[in-house]
Design goal:
Strands 2, 3, 4, 5, 8, 9, 10 and 11 form an 8-stranded mixed sheet that branches. Strands 6-7-12-13-16-15 form a 6-stranded mixed sheet. About 40% of the residues lie in helices and about 15% in strands. The longest helix has 28 residues. It contains 13 helices and 16 strands. The N and C termini lie far apart (about 50 Å).
């Protein structure tokens, strides 16, 4: 039998990638009998109060005549479920004063799918009315950045990233900032930027871009007439895994805001929420019709009444946020305890469910260190995967020269406390052997 040959599209998207390794680690068990410390993936914690809230909504649906039959037996529109879209638009416009309606909200099968649509709408080959073609780039103003973005471009060579600044404090913590000098220089010298994208809070680091950084990025987007994608999967108003006050939600017609129900306890129901100007929402609905017909309905049906009543936001504020803050503080404490004999730092955890550990004196790359840890049952994500979008023409500094490139690990602290502490202890033990 001849080997199967895929298209260029298939070859690019079906090859090895960091996100494939991450999701594979989530789904595949370790060898039988080996203790497992699953600190690598993005699964949120199962919080009893949150699970009870959703269970009550499912019981309401099941007991409401034909509501369940209609929910599972009918397609919604490609833009999403009407009652859910209206609930989201009403809440956000009332709470933040944004001038949005149902025409500004699109639902996708998770925000990962939304990013795939958006990235390829605004980067790649463009053809004007005369037939002339131009390739546009998607610009990431700060790396390290989310591993799941790295391989989403259909065309190769369309992602560009700006290496971050960082500030180090005396308490073994540090914080990344956008290098606006480099960013603005790149934008001035390149007229092929189709859009910019940031996550806030940032996955993998727990960094929250400040209100001033978002204001400046938004102003640049307006100046160059390009959209700014802001991935708000961990932010306000839900799931509200935010530990800093300098994190005001922002939207205008140059911002495309991505939200999700995953990190407030519904990851398997794949409900991504996009807030954007009408033309972009229409395009997303059209793409969704072709790629998926429509999006899954169950998450939307469960969450719509919770948004209308305010219960989802109150639960995020009063249950989810304190739960993760306590777990974050405990995990940072264990890192400082077990890593104390090394030259280490941890990024200030201002949000998300991840910690980003820097080991300045680690003697092996973290891609190699990952395999050492996996042999002991500890699953993490090596930092190199989060540095992507490098250029070969010298227009941006080489990402491999960033001092953190081979020195960082991302770990998920949402697992049970004993598992997280033991995993951190093993990481520290193996690290200190390789100083």
């Amino acid at each position: 039998m001849s080997l199967t040959q895929f298209s260029d599209f298939g070859t690019k998207l079906c090859g090895e990638s960091g996100i494939l390794q991450l999701m594979d680690d989530l789904g595949k068990p370790l060898p039988k009998g080996m203790p497992s410390y699953q600190l690598g993936g993005g699964n949120p914690a199962q919080i009893p109060e949150v699970a009870a809230m959703y269970r009550a909504q499912m019981e309401r649906i099941l007991s409401d005549g034909t509501a369940f039959d209609d929910l599972i037996g009918r397609y919604d529109a490609p833009q999403g479920r009407t009652e859910f879209i209206e609930a989201v638009a009403a809440y956000l416009s009332k709470t933040y004063g944004w001038n949005i309606g149902a025409e500004n909200v699109a639902i996708t099968n998770g925000s990962q799918s939304a990013c795939f649509y958006l990235f390829n709408l605004f980067s790649g080959t463009f053809t004007d009315k005369s037939g002339a073609q131009k390739k546009k780039k998607l610009l990431f103003p700060l790396v390290p950045e989310y591993i799941g973005y790295a391989d989403q471009g259909i065309e190769s060579g369309t992602f560009v990233s700006i290496p971050s600044h960082f500030e180090t404090d005396d308490d073994h913590t540090f914080k990344y900032h956008v290098n606006f000098d480099l960013l603005e220089e790149y934008l001035r010298k390149h007229d092929d930027t189709g859009a910019m994208c940031v996550s806030r809070p940032t996955n993998p680091t727990g960094n929250v871009l400040t209100d001033e950084e978002i204001r400046r990025l938004s102003a640049l987007a307006e100046s160059y007439d390009i959209p700014l994608f802001v991935d708000n999967a961990y932010g306000l108003p839900w799931p509200d895994i935010i530990f800093t006050e300098n994190a005001t939600p922002t939207w205008n017609e140059h911002i495309v805001l991505s939200m999700s129900l995953s990190k407030i306890g519904l990851p398997s129901l794949r409900t991504g929420i996009i807030i954007a100007k009408k033309e972009i929402v229409t395009a997303l609905g059209n793409l969704n019709a072709i790629a998926a017909l429509t999006s899954g309905s169950v998450g939307q049906a469960i969450a719509a009444p919770l948004i209308r009543s305010g219960q989802l936001v109150e639960t995020a504020k009063n249950v989810v946020r304190p739960f993760y803050k306590e777990k974050s503080d405990a995990a940072v404490g264990w890192i400082k305890k077990y890593f104390s004999d090394g030259d280490f730092a941890v990024h200030k955890n201002e949000g998300s469910i991840f910690l980003w550990i820097l080991m300045n004196d680690l003697s092996v790359p973290t891609k190699e260190f990952y395999h050492i840890l996996k042999a002991r049952g500890v699953i993490v994500v090596p930092g190199e995967y989060f540095f992507f979008g490098g250029t070969t023409d010298g227009s941006t500094p080489p990402l491999e020269q960033h001092p953190h490139y081979r020195k960082c690990l991302r770990l998920n602290y949402a697992r049970p406390a004993a598992e997280v502490e033991q995993g951190i202890r093993i990481i520290a033990e193996e690290y200190l052997r390789r100083k």
